[in-house]
Specification:
heterodimer, A: 271 residues, alpha/beta, Rossmann fold, six-stranded mixed β-sheet, 12 helices, 25% strand, globular, B: 294 residues, mainly alpha, MetI-like fold, 11 helices, binds adenosine-5'-diphosphate, binds magnesium ion
């Protein structure tokens, strides 16, 4: 229970205020099957505006599946069936009401392994704005610079914008992928273990970056790293075997979890 | 109990090393055999053909008199043929590959089509010739013009181009297209901006190698009825034509009557070999230069 020395001192009022933030995503009774295997069972979970929500749980418990449901990438897997409700700002996204492209223009995703395109650094960041119709060179230049600055990468790459993104280190590539997301000014960024392929220094930089953008975007982040969840998140959801065991403020989850399974998991008694 | 006994190892060591050496020489020998045959072939072609290989021969018109015969007509014919084959196979081949890899639902129909494409790649070229004769030359009434020959050749190499393009597309890590879809790109935007540019070197390499097959092919053109002696140069895809390998074929047949024809055939083979060499080097260059490391 020593993970949270700093957060333990957070005045309770602040935490309570956070609970009043509007939910961006609301999930009710979400079930998902890959073929006949039941990967998400009756998930009720909200993701609140301008908060960092950490999703933790052992491998295979459905964290990535849940995240990919939020931007409907999961539907690209053949033979997936979904029931229940997922609303994004009040609109049901599982229906046909909103084209997926529309949803994904507002919800970015960062993957486990950095996956820049085999293009220049500039083209990587300009990709999103371009596919959403921005052609003006001056506007694009500005978006590229601002996004790279937000991702704390500008100083490192400003002299090599037109060089291949593959010349960057793994950590820089991951921050480039975050900059690529930021370029379309998303309301939510979904991150699936964004630092699990990175060294500790790069991990630290990504965490700092998350910290610096969290006032502007809502973040849902899957992580295997308990300290990371404790450090960066406001709220934590614990998944186990496709079910949600509990979701509460990070302080509560790490200090007095309601379920003994949560307690066992965050203290490394299984995983 | 010690299984690995030092004395036993020493005893077996010599025989192991001997076997190791022998196997190396067996593989070397197999390689040398192929190289030797190839060298003899090339030596014979050059020694027979080099005497006739000169500028007049390259730029001249066809003639029954060996000393006056040139092969510009066949060179132009081959060029016009490729002018039809290259765009047709690229368009149909890449289109089919994209459909099968990115649109078609994995299932019975898709695997049925896939198996048949693989089978078509193995169908003898003369069968394509018969198809070309029936469909393009007769039913569509093109006759033995470049367009008919080109469409027939396109069908012949289409399976190769499809399979090569499919492999190039499949080699792209799914994380790249996921990143694109994740940004809100449509399928077509993803194909256009990510998949095609990344797969292009692989597609081009496959397509060029397929073209070099088409350049050397004769059987389908024999069936369509390419003239044995055609003097005027072809000026476009609606003209009658002949191609380099056809010229080689007829001159080799005629060398029974007049020995000099054999020299002309050999000189034409040199031209064909140079063309193939250029094509294949281009393919290798593209592959090495644009290969992506992920
Ligand atoms: N594409 C897929 N097809 C079939 N089953 C899948 C697929 N992706 C994940 N699963 C299964 O769904 C469950 C949850 O997977 P996932 O969401 O990736 O877990 P996590 O991210 O928590 O490790 C696992 O049992 C996994 O085997
Ligand atoms: Mg996962």
């Amino acid at each position: 229970m020593t993970l949270l020395t700093e957060r333990q001192q957070t005045p309770l009022r602040m935490v309570e205020n956070k609970q009043w933030r509007k939910p961006v995503y609301e999930t009710n009774g979400l079930n998902l099957w890959y073929g006949t295997s039941h990967a998400l069972k009756n998930i009720d979970l909200s993701i609140h505006e301008k908060e960092v929500t950490a999703i933790i749980g052992p491998s295979g418990c459905g964290k990535s599946t849940y995240l990919k449901t939020l931007n409907r990438m999961v539907e690209m897997v053949p033979d997936v069936s979904i029931s229940g409700n997922v609303t994004f700002k009040g609109n049901n996204i599982l229906g046909k009401s909103m084209p997926v492209e529309m949803l994904r223009a507002k919800v970015g995703m960062v993957f486990q392994k950095p996956n820049p395109f085999p293009k220049s650094i500039y083209e990587n960041v300009a990709f999103g704005p371009k596919i959403h119709g921005i052609r003006n060179k001056t506007v694009l230049d500005q978006i590229v610079q601002e996004s790279l600055q937000k991702a704390a990468l500008w100083d490192e790459v400003k002299d090599r914008l037109h060089k291949s993104a593959y010349g960057l280190s793994g950590g820089q590539q991951q921050r480039l992928c975050i900059a690529r997301c930021l370029a379309i000014d998303p309301e939510v960024i979904l991150m699936d273990e964004p630092t699990s392929a990175l060294d500790p220094v790069s991990t630290h930089k990504v965490e700092e970056l998350i910290h610096s953008i969290k006032n502007d975007v809502t973040i849902a982040i899957v992580t295997h790293n308990m300290q990371q969840a404790a450090r960066i998140s406001d709220r934590t959801a614990f998944f186990l075997n496709g079910e949600i065991i509990e979701c509460d403020t990070t302080t509560a989850i790490f200090n007095h979890p309601a379920d003994h399974l949560t307690d066992d998991y965050i203290n490394g008694r299984f995983g | 109990m010690q299984q690995v006994n030092e004395r036993k190892i020493t005893r077996r060591m010599n025989i192991r090393i001997l076997r190791n050496d022998i196997s190396k020489y067996i593989f070397l020998l197999s390689t040398l055999f192929g190289l030797a045959v190839l060298s003899i072939l090339i030596y014979r072609i050059f020694s027979e053909g080099v005497g006739s290989f000169n500028l007049d021969f390259l730029t001249g018109k066809l003639s029954t008199q060996p000393e006056r015969a040139g092969i510009m007509g066949a060179i132009l014919g081959t060029a016009w043929l490729m002018f039809v084959v290259a765009p047709v196979t690229m368009f149909l081949g890449v289109g089919t590959a994209i459909y099968l890899e990115l649109y078609a639902k994995k299932g019975f129909l898709q695997s049925f089509i896939q198996t048949n494409i693989a089978n078509l790649a193995g169908v003898p070229s003369i069968v394509y010739g018969i198809l070309g004769l029936t469909v393009f030359a007769r039913a569509m009434d093109f006759g033995n013009i470049v367009l008919a020959g080109g469409l027939t050749m396109s069908l012949l190499i289409l399976p190769i181009v499809i399979v090569a393009s499919q492999e190039a597309i499949r080699a792209i890590p799914s994380t790249l297209s996921e990143a694109s879809y994740g940004m809100g790109a449509t399928k077509w935007q993803t194909i256009q901006n990510i998949i095609l540019p990344v797969a292009l070197p692989g597609i081009l390499t496959g397509a060029i190698l397929a073209l070099s097959r088409a350049i050397g092919e004769t059987a389908p053109l024999v069936v369509i009825g390419i003239p044995a002696l055609l003097i005027p140069f072809p000026d476009g895809i609606f003209d009658k034509f002949t191609v380099l390998p056809m010229q080689i074929y007829y001159w080799t047949l005629d060398s029974a009557l007049l020995a000099e024809y054999a020299n002309l055939a050999a000189a034409t083979i040199i031209v064909l070999l140079i063309a193939l060499f250029i094509l294949n080097s281009t393919a290798i260059m593209i592959r090495n230069k644009f290969q992506h490391k992920f």
